[in-house]
Specification:
The chain has six helices and ten strands, in the order H-H-E-E-H-E-E-H-H-E-E-E-E-E-H-E. The protein is of the alpha+beta class. The protein has a domain of about 130 residues: endopeptidase fold (from Nostoc punctiforme) (Alpha-Beta Complex). The strands form three sheets. The protein has a six-stranded antiparallel β-sheet with strand order 5-10-6-7-8-9. The longest helix has 17 residues. The protein is globular.
């Protein structure tokens, strides 16, 4: 009798374990905490401003306030931006804040770690944290998901650029904020590493190619 009960409980335990979801994609705070991927969201309202300065190869992003030695943009205390005011999905907010953790990391071709990363390395690393696999190159990445019209772009979407003077896409960034027709995005710049930039900057305005939505 006891042996049958033991065998029954053992089989039930194995079934429950085998049915446990393996994906780490999270859509709520509770699931994220269980998966160990939860990150505390900012308690204060913050945003970033950018001002373009011209170089021979690309437009640099310069903060409106004093910039730290690690090229991180300083928070604008006068902003009334609330990350939750537009009902941004939880997963999108988590992806954005994960990307922000790499702000200031230096550029390294082929890199995917805090020791250095390139533009597609930043995006693939961030999305991989949430069990979302993307192609390694920005050109291949531009063929994934839904291509958007400019007025459809939202936080969490990807923006692509042609910065080499050719027709092939070679740069990608992650949208962190949308202010009217201005798109704020985080990316890894060859000269500045991981920084926040704007499509209002002449360089990125001129080289912008398209935007894609990876997350439904």
């Amino acid at each position: 009798m006891y042996l049958k009960q033991f065998v029954y409980l053992l089989v039930l335990t194995l079934v429950l374990v085998s049915c446990k979801p393996s994906s780490s994609i999270v859509t709520s705070k509770e699931v994220a905490q269980q998966e160990g991927t939860y990150k505390e969201l900012p308690k204060s309202n913050t945003t970033y401003k950018t001002v373009a300065t011209t170089t021979k190869t690309e437009e640099k992003t310069v903060p409106t306030k004093k910039q730290s030695s690690k090229n991180k943009l300083v928070e604008n205390e006068e902003s009334d931006y609330d990350p939750d005011s537009d009902n941004t999905p939880y997963l999108v907010r988590q992806i954005i804040y994960t990307a922000m953790e790499y702000d200031g990391v230096k550029y390294r071709s082929g890199g995917t770690t805090t020791a250095g990363m390139d533009c597609s390395g930043l995006v693939t690393t961030v999305f991989k944290t949430y069990d979302i696999s993307l192609p390694r190159s920005s050109n291949d990445m531009s063929k994934v998901g839904k291509k958007l019209k400019n007025d459809e772009i939202q936080k969490g979407d990807l923006v692509f650029f042609r910065t080499n003077g050719r027709s092939v896409i070679n740069h990608v960034g992650l949208v962190t904020e949308v202010k009217g027709d201005e798109i704020i995005f985080i990316h890894s710049s060859v000269q500045r590493g991981v920084i926040i930039s704007s499509t209002k900057e002449p360089y990125y305005q001129r080289t912008f190619a398209q935007a894609n939505r990876i997350l439904n």
